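Hey,
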Amino acid sequence: MRRVVRGFWGPRVESAEALARRWKLTLDQLTGLLPAGGSGSVAGDVRTWRQIHSSGPATDLLQDEESLLDALHAAQEADGWSARIGYGVQLVLAAEPAWKIEVSGTGGGTSEFLLQSVVIGIRSPDSAEIPDAELLAAVAEVWEPDFGDVTDDDVLDALEDDGGFAVGEPSIGWIGYLSPGRAALLPDGMAAARKELRGGGVLLDVAPRGDVKDVLRAYLQLRDAGVLQPLPSPMERAAL
């Protein structure tokens, strides 16, 4: 079973030091929320991840702030880096059998056309209990995105085939996150349960996992209400 937990936002200038803190908090949250995926830990709650590079073999990376900062500085020094694109990191943790956690993200960029993002892919046994809402709340509170969701290929295919969704547009999964500006546009008749998060924004409990039809119905309702409108292009801010 595989799901993805995602957050997206527009241009936001950030230093490598600030991003290293966000990355550290993200990995710490994963350690606490997905302990079953942690048999690769080396000392206490510190895990060793495999960092994927655009060229060359993967290398080990500890989930401490110093190691993450070094990785971000290395990305800055690599060929093709620019402040417009931002700092990209891609990590993989293959732990217990049937478990795999992949985390990738790009932050600190100033592009007016390319969204910044963090994406967590989780492959787990079918019987595993995954705290979807808590994972998305962690992404929202650490990264302060414009929108986010917990979704899978079945949902994304349905949104594209039956809802007119296109890659790069705001979307919704069985759990969704909306920044304060988007949450202010929620229609009164929206049936999804809402939870206010620290720092603003709303978590929506849209449907049980596997209920693709209800997710599609909610997506269409939110899109028609303007909740899922894209950021203005060219983008001039991180959130609606």
